[in-house]
Amino acid sequence: MRLWLAITTFCLGLVLTAVGLVSQLDNRPLDMIIANQSIEQQTNFVMIPNNVLTSYAGEVRVRAEQSGQVFLGAARQSDIEAWLGNTQFTRLALRVNPQTETVQLAELEIPGDGELADPVGSDIWRDFSLEQDVASLIIPEGNETALLIATTGFELAPREVRVIWDLPNEPNPVAPIVLIGLILMLIGAGLAVWAFWYYNKHSRPTRRKGPKPPRRGGRIKVLSQAGPGPVSERRAARGAGFIALLLTPVLLAGCAPEYISPVLNPSPSAASDILTPVMTKSQLERILNEIVLAVAASDQNLDRESLEARVDGPALIVRRSAYNLARKKDDGSGPEPILASPIQLFLPSATDTWPRSVMVVTGADDRLQLLVLRQDSVRDSFRLYQYMDLLPDTVFPEVAAETVGANAVKPDSRFLQVAPEVLPEAVGGLLNEGLDSPWASVLDGENQYIVDVSAVQRGLAETLSNANVDFAHALSNDAPVLLATVDGGALVGLYMTDTYTIIPKLPGDAVAISGDEAIMLGTGGSATGIETRYGAMLLFHVPIAGSDARVTLLGATQQLLTAITLGVR
Questions:
Q1: Does residue 488 form part of some domain?
Q2: Rg of the Cα atoms in the chain
Q3: CA 425, 427, 432, 434: dihedral to nearest 10 degrees?
Q4: How many CA atoms does the CB half-sphere of 12 hold within 13 Å?
Q5: Spatial CA neighbour of 181 closest among 24, 379, 367
Q6: What crossing angle do the helices spanning 2-26 and 233-252 adopt, rounded to 10°?
Q7: 3-state secondary structure at position 257
């Protein structure tokens, strides 16, 4: 009996283990979910929104195909929607079939009559793929990334679209029924060992004894005339136990975990209410390289017109003036090159409006540049808007991480210690009056730019004693760029003009100039007077209102713009 119990227990455990393993193999997690769609609508653009791309965990790949050019571009969904504007496009949605446990992509037409455009080459793309016939793209992570599918923007979008979610490798937990089966197998093996031990112990030969005397007055067995009696309780319990033993595998099969396909439970990422950076690091590197290559090509040929493709605002004015001066020089020297690398600091703005700006510090310790890139509208390219050489011993304020971005600050913000519009006046006061200026308590004048330019002004006034010399400083009409710093202040990039007017005091006197001013003027002096104009791109750190700290000048680049002779007096 003991051996039969051991065999039964072991077999029961074996059956349970087998049932559990089969169930676990049948219910192993999916490693991939695929959704296909053949686009039926006549559309030039197909957008897959973020709530579709993030429906399932893991890496997301999108594949599109048709004969000819295929373009896939990933960007912030708000940027793609802004780029499309009023243009008609098709939005894809996710449709789950619970019966077949599959997903499909459904089409939703967004009507519009906006102007068509080519998405290839736009600066909004965080990543893109441009191929012939078939293009595939791994979607960057983020709860705001969407995808645009197109060709040239003027032809129909690709017809065949596939979205693939490579699900993460999740461990498949061992079913409880498998553990129960293994335990029963161990118990059965233990019972078998015990049964053999018991059998060997009680089956050994014993010493012979004499015959026992017959019993006296033995009982007489009387057969009942009423037939067999009722089954004993022990036999009934044994039968019930045997039936229960047979039913145990069936009942315990329910211990196998019920597998729920992830297809049935898409969980898209919730849209964030926090503004995110307008550009990623890889996006910056691509855009910055394009800008630097374009500027370098223009520098080589001193081509004023080609600059407009990637340079704008104060940077365009200053660069063109540098070309004018370089053409008149005989030594072949040109403007200092714009540096694309190494990138020392990257500060994108966090906004969903235009215009938008980013600041980036490039170069090495012997020459660090701060570049301001600006995008006027969603379909415009980022252009070089300002560039300044950082001053020696500059202590840069703490700024937000590139993955967080900086808030754009309005020029009329009341949270700044001084308004940006008064900074040129403060600089002019320090240049003209030195540390005796009342602006010395507002702006730190002990920096290389203020020291050098004020020395030039003093030198002119002392050298041209026979002339009236006037120095005027004013803010230009170009909009300043303001990005918030961690301390509540702001980095302020602005463009100001410095105008030097030199007029002889007495008729018949003449004033002489030299250097770049004489080259630009085309002569070494004038009897009627000379006016020279300079453009200065300046970078300030303006503290938060109420701070005891002064405004500091972090970077500056000055360029001679014009030199003209004044009319007859």
A1: yes
A2: 42
A3: 130
A4: 23
A5: 24
A6: 20
A7: coil
The contacts of residue 532 (CB under 8 Å, 6+ apart) are 499, 500, 502, 513, 517, 520, 560, 562, 563, 564
| Pairing outcome for strands 127-138 and 59-76 | antiparallel
Residue type, 376: D
Sort 319 into a burial class: Cβ within 10 Å, 0-12 / 13-18 / 19+: buried
CA count, 13 A, side-chain hemisphere, 507: 2
Number of structural domains the chain divides into: 3
DSSP label at residue 120: T
Q: 10-residue block means of pLDDT along the chain (569 residues)?
A: 68 71 61 88 95 90 95 96 96 89 91 95 96 94 89 95 84 66 73 69 58 55 50 52 54 54 72 86 96 96 94 98 93 88 96 96 93 98 98 94 95 93 94 92 94 94 91 95 96 97 88 91 90 98 95 97 83
Query: How many CA atoms does the CB half-sphere of 355 hold within 13 Å?
Result: 21
Distance CA 317, CA 497 (A): 11
Residue 245 lies in a domain: no
| Amino acid at the residue 519 | I
Token pair belonging to 193 = 């060992």
Range of the domain at 185: 1-28+172-198
Q: Cα(11)–Cα(8) distance, rounded to whole angstroms? A: 5
Residue type, 455: A
Q: What is the residue whose two structure tokens read 């059965």?
A: 188
The C-alpha atoms of residue 93 and residue 111 are separated, in whole angstroms, by: 16
Give yes or no: residues 46 and 127 share one domain: yes
Q: Which residues contact 304 (CB under 8 A, 6 or more apart)?
A: 298, 320, 323
Statement to judge: residues 386 and 462 lie in one domain:
yes
Q: What is the value of pTM for the model shown?
A: 0.81
Q: Is 256 among the domain residues?
A: no
